[in-house]
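Action item from last meeting closed. Structure (440 res):
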């Protein structure tokens, strides 16, 4: 009889061999094979790590989740990383944490205002509304596609209490300028860094700059766990609140499968509960169950080792497109990096100029016919989206650049799975399209 340890080793070796057979890359054939905007990039290590978690059969958060959290803390330089089941859930947890009673006078209450941009992703803004807060929408910079700090300052009103903003397509917003406004008016600042893992602003990692930050590990993102996300913070109190909200709202901080970490499980008296009520079933927040499983975290651990190479590849691919399409700047306006930043690019954004002899829709249709995928800049102007109709909000100033993004902007992929042949085909295809339109 073979020992379970030998059997486990054989299983992992077979899984590694299976990867070679099952996931071999087919050669790229221009015009026939797809050029996606995003996708998972992995090797046998992810499959082996995932199988390790399967063989443990610990189906909730456990040792892999603990290791993944520690890895994220090391990569981002924050004190606390709290895993959850998606980047959208991370945004919900971060905004909800600022509404916790434990924050006292700094707690956000229904009717308080939160400044954000209208050109963004819906679940950056949805948690503001879901918590009874009022989003204040401002415009973006037309070159960086990020928030304009002067507009943040101009948007502050008597009930403004927080700022929630994303780093657009991996391009950091001018954090120092926004932070100065937040500090001057005593505003909370949340970074949505879901699209920007690995980017830096003045040498500091995004995700480590605001009171709270969020990450996403959906397959389109810099690393993937399939579904998954995290909340980052340097504040121990906020970390406790986020964990409570993620874990049903309970007051207890014991990990799954652990009991009596505090040493006084039956000696608490909170609220109007009877003295000694089980701390494991005492709830201090109106929470959710948004945990990440060990199976997801096991994939994340293997992906995290590849992150430096992934970031390098994204920057290289972005630069290849920028240099290749630069001669077309008369018709295609390309996103600029924010000064004093080092983006970790999520995509390559271009805006069709007003004088161009073609529309965005025509360019997208041409690329789609060549199996080159594109995306719009998420929700465009969120206030024009059906879900946001009738939502209580305030608009500070005009949304001219936002509307331009809605009408004229698209982005191309730069993820590490794209080869030089694919990128050259993209550049050649855009050139071919523009030249055809110039001559019509």
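Sequence:
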């Amino acid at each position: 009889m073979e020992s379970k340890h030998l059997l486990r080793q054989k299983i992992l070796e077979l899984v590694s061999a299976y990867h070679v057979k099952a996931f071999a890359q087919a050669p790229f054939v221009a015009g026939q094979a797809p050029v996606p905007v995003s996708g998972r990039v992995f090797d046998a290590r992810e499959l082996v790590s995932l199988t390790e978690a399967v063989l443990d059969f610990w189906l909730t958060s456990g040792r892999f989740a603990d290791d993944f959290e520690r890895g994220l803390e090391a990569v981002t330089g924050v004190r606390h990383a709290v895993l959850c089941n998606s980047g959208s859930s991370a945004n919900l947890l971060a905004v909800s944490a600022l509404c916790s009673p434990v924050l006292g006078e700094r707690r956000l209450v229904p009717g308080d205002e939160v400044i954000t941009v209208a050109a963004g992703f819906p679940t950056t803004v949805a948690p503001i509304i879901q918590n009874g807060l009022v989003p204040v929408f401002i415009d973006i910079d037309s070159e960086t596609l990020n928030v304009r700090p002067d507009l943040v300052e101009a948007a502050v009103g008597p009930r403004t209490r927080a700022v929630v903003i994303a780093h657009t397509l991996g391009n950091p917003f001018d954090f120092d300028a926004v932070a100065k406004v937040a500090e001057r008016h005593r505003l909370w600042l949340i970074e949505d860094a879901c699209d920007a893992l690995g980017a830096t602003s003045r040498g500091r990692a995004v995700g480590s700059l605001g009171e709270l930050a969020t990450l996403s590990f959906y397959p389109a993102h810099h690393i993937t766990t399939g579904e998954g996300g995290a909340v980052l913070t340097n504040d121990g109190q906020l970390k406790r609140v986020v964990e409570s909200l993620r874990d049903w709202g309970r007051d207890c901080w014991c990990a799954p499968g652990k009991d009596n970490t505090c040493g006084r499980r039956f000696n608490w008296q909170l609220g109007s509960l009877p003295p000694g009520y089980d701390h494991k079933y005492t709830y201090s927040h109106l929470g959710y169950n948004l945990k990440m499983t060990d199976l997801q975290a096991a994939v994340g651990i293997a992906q995290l080792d590849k992150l430096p190479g992934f970031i390098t590849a994204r920057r290289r691919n972005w630069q290849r497109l920028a240099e290749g399409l630069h001669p077309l700047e008369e018709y295609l306006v390309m996103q600029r990096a924010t000064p004093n930043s080092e983006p970790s690019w999520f995509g390559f954004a271009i805006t069709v100029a007003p004088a161009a002899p073609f529309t965005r829709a025509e360019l997208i249709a041409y690329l789609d016919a060549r199996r080159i995928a594109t995306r719009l800049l998420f929700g465009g102007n969120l206030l024009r989206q059906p879900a946001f109709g009738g939502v209580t909000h305030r608009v500070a100033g005009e949304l001219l650049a936002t509307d331009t993004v809605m009408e004229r902007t698209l982005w191309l992929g730069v993820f590490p799975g794209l080869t030089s042949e694919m990128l050259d085909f993209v550049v050649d295809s855009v050139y071919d399209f523009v030249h055809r339109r110039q001559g019509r």
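Note appended to the action item: The radius of gyration is 23 Å.
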